[in-house]
Amino acid sequence: MIVARGLTKTYGPKVAVDGLSFTVEPGRVTGFLGPNGAGKSTTMRMMVGLDRPTAGTVTINGRSYADSAAPLRTVGALLEARALHPGRSARNHLRWLAASNGIPVRRVDEVLDLVGLTDVADQRVGRFSLGMGQRLGIAVALLGDPPVVVLDEPVNGLDPEGIRWVRTLARELASQGRTVLVSSHLMSEMALTADHLIVVGRGRMLADCSMAQFIADHAASYVRVRAPRTAEVEALLRSRGLDVDRQGSELRVQGLDSAGIGDLLGGAGLHLHELSLVRSSLEDAFMTLTADSVEYSAHPVAQEAQAAR
Ligand SMILES: Nc1ncnc2c1ncn2[C@@H]1O[C@H](COP(=O)(O)OP(=O)(O)OP(=O)(O)O)[C@@H](O)[C@H]1O
């Protein structure tokens, strides 16, 4: 498991990571979420010794990364800044890493196969697409068959098939009992991949709970009601003290479940065309929670102009 205690990193006056304490447990996928600049990459870099904490500690299975005798066998990491020699082939890159970490060379072909790069294993990595580079980065992370896997934005640059593959892989690694920490900007994807969430904003902990708990705590749900006599339905629901938000011909009702609303309207002889529960997504929950922690937010007009482009 990964244990952070009071983990802090400052760059001059900038506090990138601000006293984070959490535990990433084995046997499940933990999603690491936060707006741009929240400190996710810095936290992951400290886990694998690429950055030194200003204060606090982070340990992998009880030891700091620097104390690990065989780092690649302890924790496998895919981090954003990959140092690949562009002239080297994928196979040679992995062979070199295997040799310098005491990993049997046969493992190279196993991981190439696992990430789907066998056919291009002898091409120079300088010619790799972003997606191929990501797959190679994941191959590096898995080379030492580590019990702890840390993946920073692993689906960056991957096509839908690749995204699904990463999801299946992360879940498989967790089901084998490994500790899996994955950061991503794709909320819909994270909702399908992670069991547990750690959410940070401006370097601080905002939430550390199960996916289900997170959505229950931070996402609203409502009952969508469509009925031919909308105004009468709206008046009746309001008269019962329910919270009704009218959006065109649709009523969004909070305060009573679908069955209760159906019974109420049926009792009044009002016909229904639709009665459905709408749950907001992980993305909605995330936006609600992190609204105050966003460092770089677009002005609404700028967003519209971008959408029109
Ligand atoms: N080497 C550095 N020097 C100065 N500031 C840095 C450095 N690395 C990160 N920062 C700052 O620390 C903060 C956290 O950055 P970090 O990359 O960890 O965030 P993140 O959550 O991974 O963001 P993103 O989702 O955009 O990748 C940001 O404000 C960033 O500008």
UniProtKB/TrEMBL annotation:
GO terms for molecular function: ATP binding; ATP hydrolysis activity. SMART domains: AAA (SM00382). Residues 2-227 form the ABC transporter domain. Pfam families: ABC_tran. Keywords: ATP-binding, Nucleotide-binding, Transport. Belongs to the ABC transporter superfamily. This is ABC transporter ATP-binding protein. It comes from Modestobacter versicolor.
